[in-house]
Amino acid sequence: MVPEPVPMKLLALAGARVHEAEGSGRRSFALLQAARHDGPLIWALPAHAPHLPMLRGLPEGVGQRLHVIRPSSELDLLWAVEECLRSPGVGLVIAEPEKPLSLIAGRRLQLAAEAGRTTGLMLIREGQGSNAAETRWHCAPLPGADLDSTPHHWSLKKNKKGTEGDWIVNWNGETAAVHLVSAAGERDSVAETSR
Amino acid sequence: MALADARAICPGLITRPADLVREAAALAGLRRWAGRYSPMVARDGADGLIADITGVPHLFGGEAELRADLHARLARAGLTAESAIAETRSAACALARHGGGILPEGGLAEGIASLPVGALRIDRKVAEGLFRMGLKRVADLIALPRGPLARRFGSDLVLRLDQALGTQPEPVSPEADLPYFGVRMTLPEPIGLTADVMAGLDRLLGRLCAALARHQRGARRLRLELQRVDRETAQIEIGLARPMRDPDRISALFAKGVGEVEAGFGIEMMRLVAHVTEDLPPEQIGENVVPCETDALADLFSTLGNRLGFDRVLRLLPAQSNIPERSFLLAPAAYSVAETPPLHQGPARPIMIFSPEPVRARGGGRPGDPPSAFRWRNMSFTTLRATGPERIAPEWWFDDPAWRTGLRDYWRVETREGLRLWLFHTPQAAAWSAQHWFAQGEFP
């Protein structure tokens, strides 16, 4: 059975707002969003962070648009993110703050995003979110049923302007498209057979 | 004379190697200074300057006074110089290197008659040939018929002779000065308010950007020097992510630095220098071209670079290497151009890469096969499926300490916990080494 492609509207981030993603699969989620946004991409991560995006593994079209900013301190990182959000030339800003965002910082980022019409995505550790975030996603990779499947469990835990949700999708990390995996339901009672 | 001979004669001789670059720079500085005597000053060989002072000497009171003034000023600067004034360039050049002096008008032939033929800037071979024939002085040459002389020694000798005597013209052609992008403003009253300094800066920027536009250049780095009443100087330096000559956008970048300057009793002089510039030809702007986005991005990188440092605003560039760490470069975004990475072929690559982290393996079948369970970053994982191995050999032409353990067998390991990791095994590592498994990446 070929899983049906998910329409783009699903898993879309509201424009000109700042969102949050947590969980071990948050960087995969961020890259999917990067592939879905036009324009230059900014990835801000602390200078001492051990990891870096690997150019050859990025989804197509992301590598040449991606810029990495490595500020030396948390304060510089938040300042850089705010400047990036305020700039009209940027498509998506992905940032990895290390400390929990205060409500003031979160609000400032939201205002900057509104001023620059830019979308932001904060990759936070679990439970370190800010109340100012527009949406919060919990992302976790799931073990695949076979070699080709790379399922992810992405759940929308917080949404200021809509409903929450839970999706299990197959995303192979190459394109901007994901395939929805239909959830297996459990029946309470035995289905009645036709007579 | 060879150095060894000179040392033999004078054992206490102190020698220094010639620094040709700095000598040339010093001569260039002297050439700029010599502009006070004439608008046309050019370099003459490696050790001389030639100035066309036609119509100038009366400003100094005469040729002799001009020469005396020149020598007095050079002596005050600690320089020993020889100079000559003559009607033609060749004659002046020859005379300056053989005694110096002033040749009065009309006295050209007599003046250079006693000089050796070598003074005429001819080849050494020609000079030796002339010497062998007994033609030692310029006077001997002047008397000879031109035809046989040209046939015997080439037309160059005759040309030089004619130039020295003024029958052939030889103009002084000074090399063009490189444009200097610096403006200054001296204030009648010291200022101290940030708004005042910014207003002054705007005036300076207007003039500087006009000069840049005239030469089709764009500033890359700018330095603002603020001289205070007590002779202290504060400097503010900014960089730009791309060449630019737009006063408003440059002014915005100075705002933070100007705000931090200690004004003391006031600032009385401002100097703005664009010490690094690049070509910036005028661009067609119209409906078809939308430079807004790139402009906005360049402005953003200028802002970020000036606070964080331009080496912290980076871009990923593809590199030709199979070693995962070296398969891409981090280049400063302000000094590089985006490149489309080549289409990736072969085994999949992780989205995130980190430096190898030890993995504590438990279980596992044959050596070299991935462990059935392992611990990484204090988390336990059970292997669900492993794809591989992909063997990557170290680049022998680089001595990379991280690759001293030899070959690496990379596996894409899917775990029951969900994470898909990029593990590698070092089969060539010493047997006593307990650590054979490392994690280096994360798949989507």
Walkthrough of the structure:
The complex is a heterodimer of chains A (195) and B (444). Helix content of chain A is 19%, strand content 25%. Chain A is built from three helices and ten strands. Chain A has helices spanning 26-36, 74-86, 103-116, and strands at 18-22, 41-44, 51-53, 66-69, 92-95, 119-123, 135-141, 151-159, 165-170, 179-180. In chain A, strand 8 (151-159) and strand 9 (165-170) form a beta hairpin. By secondary structure, chain B is of the alpha+beta class. The termini of chain B are far apart. Chain B is elongated. Chain B has four domains: 33-165, no CATH class; 182-304, DNA polymerase, Y-family, little finger domain (Dna Ligase, domain 1, 2-Layer Sandwich), CATH 3.30.1490.100; 315-345, no CATH class; 352-442, no CATH class. The mean pLDDT of chain B is 88. Classes of the chains: A alpha/beta (195), B alpha+beta (444).
Largest sheet of chain B: 7 strands, antiparallel
The percentage helix of chain B is: 25-40%
Number of E-type strands of chain A = 10
Sheet/helix structural class of chain B = alpha+beta
**Total domain modules of chain B:** 4
The class by helix and strand makeup of chain A works out as alpha/beta
SSE string of chain A, helix = H, strand = E?
A: EHEEEHEHEEEEE
Helices and strands of chain B, in order, run as HHEEHEHEHHHHHEHEEHEHEEEEEEEEE
